[in-house]
């Protein structure tokens, strides 16, 4: 197990931010997830602590008490050095349906033009890639997905929209993602995911974990409408494959 140079800093009275090298690297992400699992199993009561992994950091939040930063910092450094490898959690590949119909893909023609490729190429590249969930945030259930092909890298829109529809699938820089609810946003919208990504009424509101994989597949408008009905009545079955650890 490789040791990385980590830094630790206060993130308010109730939180500490642990940072790894500033790189988008699956090995770093896996080390973060492993350290989180070690802390959860051996050091920090998950009833009292919230732990949020993302890209190259782990945010630790004490839900009830003000943190003794200097003392906690020393403990974290010791725990990281002495950490043990815990059993890896199950990692899944989730296949999510996206309708790239022009009614939803409001930026796809502009994206294709900027990239010098066809709309069909944009869809083919987007659906043939397997993405890694590097973080969940911004909105509840908003997944930051890394692994975007270089051919699809496009800047954020110069003028964000006041309203982006729920389920919108967007591109921004080196990332793609799904808006789990209606919100403002500046990503380039190329389609819409027909199934609910976040549901506060579910036992697990967001079914995906950091470290999981996502692959999109194209659907017709008729399939989109059917999935929406299935999602609303709670009978849609998500497609997932368990990956080898």
From TrEMBL:
Keyword vocabulary terms for this entry: ATP-binding, Hydrolase, Nucleotide-binding
Domain Carboxyltransferase: 6-208
A GO term for molecular function: 5-oxoprolinase (ATP-hydrolyzing) activity
Listed SMART domains: AHS1
Keyword flag Cell membrane: no
Pfam families per UniProt: CT_C_D
Top EC class for this record: hydrolase
Keyword Hydrolase: yes
EC number of this enzyme: 3.5.2.9
InterPro entries, A to Z: CT_C_D, Cyclophilin-like_dom_sf, PxpB
NCBIfam families the UniProt entry points to: 5-oxoprolinase subunit PxpB
PANTHER family: 5-OXOPROLINASE SUBUNIT B
UniProt-recorded name of the protein: 5-oxoprolinase subunit PxpB
Source species of the chain: Maribacter luteus
Lineage, uppermost ranks: Bacteria, Pseudomonadati, Bacteroidota, Flavobacteriia, Flavobacteriales
Protein encoded by which gene: pxpB
């Amino acid at each position: 197990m490789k040791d990385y140079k980590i830094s630790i800093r206060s993130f308010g009275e109730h939180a500490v931010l642990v940072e790894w090298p500033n790189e988008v690297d699956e090995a770093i992400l896996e080390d973060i997830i492993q350290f989180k699992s070690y802390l959860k199993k051996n050091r920090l009561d998950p009833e009292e602590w919230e732990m949020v992994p993302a890209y190259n950091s782990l945010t630790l939040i004490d839900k009830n008490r003000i943190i003794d930063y200097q003392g906690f910092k020393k403990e974290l450094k010791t725990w990281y050095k002495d950490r043990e490898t815990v059993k890896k959690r199950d990692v899944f590949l989730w296949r999510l349906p996206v309708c790239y119909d022009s009614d939803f893909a409001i930026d796809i023609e502009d994206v294709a033009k900027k990239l010098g490729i066809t709309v069909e190429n944009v869809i083919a590249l987007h659906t043939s890639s397997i993405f890694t969930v590097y973080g969940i945030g911004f909105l509840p259930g908003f997944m930051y997905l890394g692994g975007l092909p270089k051919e699809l890298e496009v800047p954020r829109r110069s003028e964000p929209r006041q309203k982006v529809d729920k389920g919108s699938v967007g591109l921004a820089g080196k990332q793609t993602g799904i808006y789990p609810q209606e919100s403002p946003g500046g990503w380039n919208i190329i389609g819409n995911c027909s199934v609910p990504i976040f549901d506060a009424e579910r036992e697990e509101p967001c079914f995906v974990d950091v470290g999981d994989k996502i692959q999109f597949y194209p659907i017709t408008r008729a399939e989109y409408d059917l999935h929406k009905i299935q999602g609303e009545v709670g009978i849609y079955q998500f497609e997932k494959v368990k990956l080898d650890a």
